[in-house]
Amino acid sequence: MKKPNYNKIYQEIIERNFPEKMEQTKHLLKENMNVLDVINLSNTLSPKSKSENQKHKSYDLDFIKTVLAYQEKNKFINQETAEKYNLSRNTVTRWKKAYSS
After folding, report:
1. Does pTM surpass 0.70?
2. If we measure between CA atoms, which residue out of 85, 95, 33 comes closest to residue 65?
3. Is residue 80 classed exposed, middle or buried when 0-12, 13-18 and 19+ CB atoms within 10 A define those classes?
4. What are residue 52's phi and psi, to 5 degrees?
5. Measuring CA to CA, which residue among 44, 55, 95 is closest to residue 36?
6. What is the pLDDT of residue 54?
7. Three-state DSSP class for residue 41
8. Which SUPFAM superfamilies match (predicted)?
9. How many CA atoms lie within 13 A of 75 on its CB side?
10. CB 14, CB 25: distance < 8 Å
11. Are 6 and 38 in contact (CB under 8 A)?
């Protein structure tokens, strides 16, 4: 399955809706963007409402492994990891059970 071209999508969104943020977001637009890049870019464009968009997030396996590696490296508990990435503790627990070796 092909991934969406986030670079093109966000380039158009920025040009149409946020032309004043073009310089601020230029370094965030990459050729191959991962989920973490998309989240950072979205938060930069409209940081106003985090809880509004929480229900419909989806994550790829690379992002999940990045989060779990970050947690292990920093010896975070699930709550700290969840707060860092704006997830629920249950989500982090579920990921640990499913993807940790």
Report:
1. no
2. 95
3. middle
4. -65, -35
5. 44
6. 63
7. helix
8. TrpR-like
9. 0
10. yes
11. yes
